[in-house]
């Protein structure tokens, strides 16, 4: 048992016994009598307490010699959360690993990107995750390979390539070592539940920690869906995607009966599936821990009613950093509807049409930086057109790269030479593109009025008012926007009955509430 788990053993044990889905992905359970590690929600009969060890990550369990459970499938657990408060440096390193920083590089290069020595980075990973960075990367590759083996009909050679293994031999050896089965044997175990699909369609189920306010997230995305690029239909979100000159579409919706989103991807190049899934996880904020966020924000009497009314509210991310930044520039000083119209015109004039699309209303990709660098964009003030062109030239020349190495702290430096990108846009981009949980566009007029309860606060006053919301100010912004949208539509807190929170069972010595079994 790692040092961080020692202090939380009581919490972990109660969560294990209750199979509480809110603890899914927060820790993993190694069973010494079987040599298998599981998620807290595993439906298998409970092992005796003396045969159980707790680990802060799947990588730590595998490093200790346990193999993944085939029943609860640790590879589909929600991502690493912030419930133990890992440092921003660890979060940044995990983002880089999720984008493949260790697939082609080494720990020294990763450490350099986050501004520390390799030794110190390894020490932080051991402290917070119980495993070295290379072990975390290896577990990530192995888990994605297992998803592809179980959930797709891809040939094993393509599975190995898509999961980031350098060769089929290395892939076979890694799977055999971890699961004590060959890849083909693993596929045969799960073949009964597989559904035959078209050759370029892939379906994944991505877990989250409940609650998850899908309706509020979809409401937010619906209002901002760029015509031709995005569409919301029948409770599902659809959009076009482009990676490395390949175009496709993805669809995301809730999976009935379980705490997961279903992701359907049509894309011609399977080697890019891991990057697509990584982006989707960030887009839909699947690593968030709503219990921790709600507990913190509920201490504020302004936010507490909103937290109760909209449990599990998430901060929606973005598919592409350049696209979202252009959208943020278009949204300056105009309504959400006006910005959506402008984005649709831009996409219609400069976006690349899709050869085919199964989704009505999704027919093109958002224009890339090279297309907009010198474009004469009609219908915009000169200042806004120049800002988009300056941004496009910087991105095309790779002076600005929207990848995991970019952080909220470094974003102002990237934007400093682009006239027309101010603090509001910078914070909004940090919130949506970088998934910075503490980003906060304090200049936003709706937030200033909502926080002032009808009185328009100054930007400085709102900044002071938001200090107690640190480090979850982005979620506070979402709650205030959601409340304002609800009041405008007649759905707000003044109209309609607040849902009373369930009486929780609390763990001994802990402030984490648990559902009753």
Itemize the secondary structure elements and their pairings.
Elements (H helix, E strand, L loop, with lengths): L2 H5 L1 H10 L9 E4 L4 E3 L13 E4 L2 H6 L3 E2 L19 H11 L2 H4 L2 H8 L3 H12 L3 H19 L4 H7 L5 H12 L3 H8 L10 E7 L6 H10 L6 E4 L2 E8 L2 E9 L5 E7 L6 H11 L6 H8 L6 H6 L11 H10 L5 H15 L18 H4 L9 H15 L14 H5 L7 H10 L12 H7 L7 H7 L7 H16 L16 E2 L6 E2 L3
Parallel strand pairs: 2-4
Antiparallel strand pairs: 1-2, 1-3, 5-9, 6-7, 7-8, 8-9, 10-11
Helix pairs in contact: 4-6, 4-8, 6-7, 8-11, 9-10, 16-17, 16-19, 16-21, 22-24
What does this molecule look like?
44% of the residues lie in helices and 10% in strands. It has 517 residues and is an alpha+beta fold. The chain folds into three domains: 3-76, DNA Methylphosphotriester Repair Domain, CATH 3.40.10.10; 88-151 and 154-193, Homeodomain-like (Arc Repressor Mutant, subunit A); 202-488, TATA-Binding Protein, CATH 3.30.310.20. The strands form three sheets. A five-stranded antiparallel β-sheet has the order 5-9-8-7-6, covered by helices on one side. Strands 3-1-2-4 form a four-stranded mixed β-sheet. A two-stranded antiparallel ribbon has the order 10-11. Strand 10 (505-506) and strand 11 (513-514) form a beta hairpin.
Q: How would you summarize this macromolecular structure in one to three sentences?
A:
This protein has 517 residues and is of the alpha+beta class.
What is the multimeric organization of the chains shown?
single chain
The counted number of beta strands is 11
SS content category: alpha+beta
Which whole number gives the mean pLDDT? Answer: 88
Work out the radius of gyration. 23 Å
Please give the order of strands in the largest beta sheet: 5-9-8-7-6
Residue fraction in strands: 5-15%
Form type = globular
Number of helices: 24
* CATH topology grouping of the largest domain: TATA-Binding Protein
């Amino acid at each position: 048992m790692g040092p961080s788990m020692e202090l939380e053993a009581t919490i972990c044990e109660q969560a294990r016994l209750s199979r509480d889905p809110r603890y899914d992905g927060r820790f993993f359970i190694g069973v010494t009598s079987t040599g298998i590690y599981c998620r807290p929600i595993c439906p298998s009969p409970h092992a005796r307490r003396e045969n159980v060890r707790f680990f802060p990550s799947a990588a730590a369990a595998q490093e200790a010699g346990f193999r993944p459970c085939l029943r609860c499938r640790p590879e589909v657990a929600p991502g690493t959360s912030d419930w133990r408060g890992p440092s921003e440096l660890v979060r940044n390193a995990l983002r880089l690993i999720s984008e493949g920083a260790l697939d082609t590089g080494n720990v020294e290069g990763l450490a350099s990107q986050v501004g520390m020595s390799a030794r110190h980075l390894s020490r932080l990973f051991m402290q917070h995750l119980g495993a070295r960075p290379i072990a975390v990367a290896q577990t990530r590759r192995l888990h994605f390979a297992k998803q592809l083996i179980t959930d797709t009909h891809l040939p094993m050679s393509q599975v190995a390539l898509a999961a980031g293994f350098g060769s089929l031999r290395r892939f076979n050896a890694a799977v055999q070592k971890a699961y004590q089965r060959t890849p083909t044997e693993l596929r045969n175990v799960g073949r009964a539940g597989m559904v035959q699909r078209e050759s370029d369609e892939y379906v994944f189920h991505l877990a989250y920690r409940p609650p998850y306010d899908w309706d509020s997230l979809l409401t937010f995305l619906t209002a901002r869906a760029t015509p031709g690029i995005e569409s919301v239909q029948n409770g599902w979100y659809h959009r076009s995607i482009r990676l490395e000159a390949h175009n496709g579409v993805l669809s995301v919706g809730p999976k009935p009966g379980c705490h997961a989103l279903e992701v359907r991807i049509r894309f011609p190049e399977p080697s890019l599936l891991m990057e697509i899934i990584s982006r989707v996880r960030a887009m839909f904020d699947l690593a968030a821990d709503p219990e921790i966020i709600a507990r913190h924000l509920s201490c504020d009497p302004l936010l507490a009613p909103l937290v109760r009314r909209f449990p599990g509210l998430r901060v929606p991310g973005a598919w592409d950093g350049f696209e979202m930044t252009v959208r943020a520039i278009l949204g300056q000083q105009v309504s959400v509807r006006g910005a959506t119209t402008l984005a649709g015109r831009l996409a219609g004039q400069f976006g690349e049409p899709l050869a085919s699309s199964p989704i009505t209303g999704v027919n093109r990709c958002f224009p890339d930086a090279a297309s907009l660098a010198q474009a004469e964009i009609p219908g915009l003030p000169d200042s806004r057109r120049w800002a988009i062109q300056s941004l496009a030239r910087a991105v095309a020349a790779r002076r600005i790269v929207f990848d995991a190495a970019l952080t909220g702290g470094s974003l102002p430096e990237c934007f400093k030479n682009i006239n027309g990108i101010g603090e509001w846009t910078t914070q909004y981009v940090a919130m949506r593109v970088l998934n910075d949980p503490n980003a906060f566009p304090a200049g936003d007029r709706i937030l200033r009025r909502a926080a002032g309860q009808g009185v328009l606060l100054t930007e400085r006053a709102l900044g002071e008012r938001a200090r107690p919301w640190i480090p979850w100010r982005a979620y506070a912004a979402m709650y205030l926007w959601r409340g304002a949208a609800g009041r405008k539509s007649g759905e707000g807190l003044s109209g309609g009955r607040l849902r009373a929170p369930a009486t929780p069972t609390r763990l001994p010595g802990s402030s984490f509430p648990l559902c009753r079994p």
